């Protein structure tokens, strides 16, 4: 009997998946969210749990790709114009947060007895929050598009940019020749600018034609591969020049935010992002050194409390200073008080440069992980307070909930029918998102000024990325009856709260749509045919009131015949087709 062969990493994969499947539902059930579940699962299977993974750093590099893909997806949702609107939050509030928090935490570190060099690295490193952790929390709660969510994201984005000068600071503090340092930094700055410029140029002018070519080939697998290539390729380029990989992926996402393919790209990337983000948090949990925390528990507890309180108070105060309401400022404060994953990078670099002692770096890393674990408790506590205030009816200091997105319409199929239907909505200022799966039709529509995205009506993940969850109404204006039927079943399951309006190709199709329970259906030529008939009667000399009577009667008989056909089949009510509209003299007299 042949010996069974187990593929590499097979057992490890089973263990990781099992730990996640057990831990995540439990933490979500008690209101702590999926992130804490992944962290707890990592602790359980790591060196200080059952000890299955003794070298978590071996998989950390792979798991960090989850952060890269997360920032790529976030970038897809932020058009450059919208990013420009956020510049005050990014460069104003974000810079103030890093500098002021870094200064305060540096002073606190010096009170712990650290030298000013070590305290400076510790303070500025701890001033950075966790992009992966905070954005995952905001997405889980559906708060990323809110005012406070966007403000928190602006701060996180500046922090991602700040890692570059902070790493340069480590090089300056490290003992080396000053002239060599100056030259090295100057070269690095030029290289960074060139790399960022290339990513922006490629995203702006090269990627959309590439995706158009791949779409024409008809292979969804190619689109997925291309999306991963763009996200990881731009991240790799930024990493080569010393920037954050996540920042590179974010830039490429922003450049594709105005592309017609953004929603499909987001849907294709999402499964990979979700799995890798979970793996990232599990790896962070594995790296929590419990024996080090026990040996230094007093220092660790004080550091955790000081860090979260100091950052929380400063975030609240700065957010208020930059125009946030009290409730939004509080939400920012409880979302970003933790240390971040980029602190690990800074501490490791400082340790390699012989500035930061290894034991101190390990304690600081443990503090960062513990603050990640504790952050959801603050968010849950704030939600609890808000709910209690709501029940008491206290409106004076009530935590304001974020505003729901304005009503919007999702139009699927942007041919002649979809374009004409959209004009009524656009003319009233209704938010319209249009999807089509024909690249040439999308290109033609864009020539007339329409913004149309590539997407498949039968893929709920694409419709979700396009805003299906927030859509008040979904209009199916596609031409293929079978595709429409499949789309209706998917939409009813995925978006039960959205009204469903459908274009019917003919009478038989209208009957099918009625049986499927759509909210409204109309035959594509019905209204235009009645208008045509009205004009013909006008030319023949009939008075307007008689034409109104005829149209009303035809509509009435059509509705009655549809009801009869639903019950008795296609030929039911056929005798009604040739009936004449009664005149006043033909109508029975009404009794006195």
Automatic annotation (TrEMBL):
Q: NCBIfam families of this UniProt entry?
A: 2a37
Domain of life the protein comes from: Bacteria
Q: Does the keyword Thylakoid apply?
A: no
The source organism is Pseudovibrio japonicus
**Protein topology in the membrane:** Multi-pass membrane protein
Where is this protein localized, as stated in its record? Membrane
Recall the taxonomic lineage recorded for the source organism.
Answer: Bacteria, Pseudomonadati, Pseudomonadota, Alphaproteobacteria, Hyphomicrobiales
Task: Provide the transmembrane region boundaries.
Answer: 6-24, 31-53, 59-78, 90-112, 118-138, 150-173, 185-207, 228-251, 271-288, 300-318, 363-386
Would you tell me the protein name for this molecule?
A: Potassium efflux system protein
- InterPro entries per the UniProt record, alphabetical: Cation/H_exchanger_TM (IPR006153), K/H_exchanger (IPR004771), K_uptake_TrkA (IPR006036), Na+/solute_symporter_sf (IPR038770), NAD(P)-bd_dom_sf (IPR036291), RCK_N (IPR003148)
């Amino acid at each position: 009997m042949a010996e069974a062969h187990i593929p590499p990493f097979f057992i490890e994969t089973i263990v990781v998946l099992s730990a996640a499947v057990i831990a995540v539902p439990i933490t979500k059930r008690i209101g702590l969210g999926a992130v804490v579940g992944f962290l707890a699962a990592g602790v359980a299977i790591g060196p200080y749990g059952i000890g299955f993974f003794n070298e978590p750093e071996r998989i950390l590099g792979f798991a960090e790709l989850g952060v890269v893909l997360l920032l790529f997806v976030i970038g897809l949702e932020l058009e450059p114009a919208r990013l420009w609107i956020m510049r005050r939050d990014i460069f104003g509030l974000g810079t103030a947060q890093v500098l002021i928090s870094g200064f305060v935490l540096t002073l606190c570190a010096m009170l712990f007895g650290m030298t000013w060099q070590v305290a400076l690295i510790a303070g500025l490193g701890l001033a950075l929050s966790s992009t992966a952790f905070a954005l995952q929390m905001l997405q889980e709660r559906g708060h990323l598009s809110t005012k406070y969510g966007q403000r928190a994201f602006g701060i996180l984005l500046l922090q991602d940019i700040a890692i570059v000068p902070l790493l340069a600071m480590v090089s300056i503090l490290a003992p080396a020749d000053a002239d060599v340092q100056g030259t090295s930094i100057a070269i690095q700055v030029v290289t960074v600018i060139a790399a960022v410029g290339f990513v922006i140029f490629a995203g702006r002018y090269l990627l959309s034609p590439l995706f158009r070519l791949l779409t024409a080939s008809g292979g969804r697998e190619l689109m997925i591969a291309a999306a991963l290539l763009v996200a990881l390729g731009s991240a790799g380029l930024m990493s080569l020049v010393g920037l954050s990989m996540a920042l590179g992926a974010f830039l490429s996402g922003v450049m594709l935010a105005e592309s017609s393919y953004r929603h499909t790209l987001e849907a294709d990337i999402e499964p990979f992002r979700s799995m890798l983000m979970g793996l990232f948090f599990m790896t962070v949990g594995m790296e929590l050194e419990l024996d080090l925390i026990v040996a230094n528990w007093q220092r660790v507890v004080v550091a955790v409390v000081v860090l979260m309180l100091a950052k929380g108070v400063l975030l609240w105060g700065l957010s208020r200073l930059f125009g946030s309401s009290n409730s939004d400022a509080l939400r920012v404060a409880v979302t970003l008080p933790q240390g971040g994953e980029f602190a690990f990078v800074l501490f490791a670099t400082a340790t390699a440069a012989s500035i930061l002692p290894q034991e101190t770096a390990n304690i600081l890393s443990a503090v960062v992980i513990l603050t990640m674990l504790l952050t959801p408790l603050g968010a849950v506590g704030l939600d609890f307070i808000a709910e209690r205030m709501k029940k008491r009816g206290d409106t004076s200091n009530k935590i304001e909930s974020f505003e729901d997105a304005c009503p919007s319409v999702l139009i699927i199929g942007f041919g002649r029918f979809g374009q004409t239907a959209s004009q009524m909505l656009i003319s009233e200022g209704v938010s319209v998102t249009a999807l089509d799966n024909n690249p040439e039709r999308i290109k033609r529509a864009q020539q007339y000024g329409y913004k149309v995205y590539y997407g498949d009506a039968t893929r709920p993940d694409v419709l979700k990325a396009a805003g299906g969850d927030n859509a008040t109404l979904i209009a199916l204006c596609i031409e293929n009856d079978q595709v429409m039927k499949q789309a209706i079943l998917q939409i009813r399951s995925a978006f039960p709260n959205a009204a469903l309006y459908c274009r019917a190709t003919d009478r038989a199709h209208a009957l099918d749509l009625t049986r499927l329970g759509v909210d409204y259906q109309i035959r594509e030529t019905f209204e235009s045919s009645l208008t045509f008939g009205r004009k013909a009667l006008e030319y023949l000399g009939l008075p307007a009131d008689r034409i109104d009577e005829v149209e009303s009667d035809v509509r009435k008989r059509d509705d009655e015949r549809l009801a009869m056909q639903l019950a008795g089949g296609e030929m039911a009510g056929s005798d009604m087709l040739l009936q004449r509209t009664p005149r006043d003299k033909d109508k029975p007299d009404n009794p006195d």
